[in-house]
Design brief:
295 residues, alpha+beta, Membrane-bound Lytic Murein Transglycosylase D, Chain A, Muramoyl-pentapeptide Carboxypeptidase, domain 2, 2 domains, 4-stranded mixed β-sheet, 12 strands, 22% helix, 17% strand, binds zinc ion
């Protein structure tokens, strides 16, 4: 039997004298959710806000969450209600039976019951959210480091959170890894206003803030490795050397390595959680080509 569609809880604004014909195009009023909610703290519930007037049907595509699931998570909303920008919509609710699992290797793996990265004041994500899913451990560790960053700096620019994994993991171009819910690309924090250059360079790379983030992530004990450019590693080291002794540096910098293509962002890989029995920490090596005969 098809599930009955609940009546929309949101009323469209109706004023006397408003022509009825335009009503369907009026965005519904934002849902106010100001009550502090402990379920968001422990990630058992995640809400996202609508970026521009859209229906649940359109959001389903933007967020890669099925319409059926969105409707089930938000019984007050009907699929064709137009939701106003700022409306918050539930995109995840934990279920005891849906245990998150990272399966396989970062470059040949998948994600089971991954959860969406929540929104927050100190970071940003693109409106298209098809690739911001991770294991609970990944999402929690990343979220907590970003919250600490937001508390540490009054003037903190939002950190750009780029790709994690797709809802069910697997290959997402152009990445080789990012397949099993344990990888995230984080744009470097720049010390220039957002309207100015977004290029990372010696004078724009914010050493203190990027180092804070790296330290907060590694201090969680959940980071397996961080990939970045050689220059960024040197700039991070310069900031770290102001806080740490020479003996303390390797604990952080042994985890940070150079990898091509990381001049504008860092790639953070989290460890396999103990409970994820089918998780493989390292990427699978591609078969080596036969050595070229020397000329
Ligand atoms: Zn990456």
């Amino acid at each position: 039997m098809a599930p009955q569609m609940p009546a929309p809880a949101i009323e469209l604004p109706v004023a006397l004298g408003t022509p009825a014909a335009i009503l369907p195009w009026q965005p519904a009023a934002p849902v106010q959710t100001n009550d502090p909610d402990p379920t968001e703290e422990d990630l058992s519930i995640v809400r996202w806000s609508v970026d521009e007037a859209k229906t649940l049907a359109q959001l389903s595509w933007t967020w890669s969450i099925s319409q059926r699931r969105l409707a089930r998570l938000n019984p007050g909303l009907a699929p064709h209600d137009v939701l106003a920008p700022g409306t918050t919509v539930r995109v995840h609710e934990a279920d005891d039976e849906d245990v998150t699992q990272s399966i396989g290797a970062p470059n040949r793996g998948r994600l089971v019951h991954g959860i969406p990265m929540p929104e927050g004041d100190s970071w940003s994500m693109k409106p298209g959210r098809q690739r911001v899913y991770g294991t609970v451990e990944t999402v929690r560790t990343l979220r907590d480091a970003l919250l600490a960053y937001g508390r540490a700096f009054d003037d903190a620019p939002r950190v750009q959170i780029r790709d994690l994994s797709a809802l069910r993991g697997g290959k997402i171009a152009p990445h080789r890894s990012h397949q099993s819910g344990r990888d995230v690309d984080i744009g470097f924090v720049l010390n220039t206003p957002p309207e100015q250059t977004r290029r990372v360079g010696e004078n724009t790379f914010d050493r203190e803030k990027n180092w804070f983030l790296v330290r907060a992530l590694i201090d969680s004990g959940q980071v397996q490795s961080i990939y970045t450019s050689g220059k960024a590693k040197r700039w991070l080291l310069a900031a770290a050397a102001k806080e740490l002794t020479a003996d303390e540096l390797p604990r952080y910098f042994d985890l940070i390595s150079y990898e091509r293509g990381h001049s504008q962002h860092m790639h953070v890989r989290f460890r396999c959680a103990d409970e994820h029995g089918a998780c493989q920490g390292r990427s699978k090596q591609r078969p080596k080509r036969a050595a070229r005969p020397s000329a």
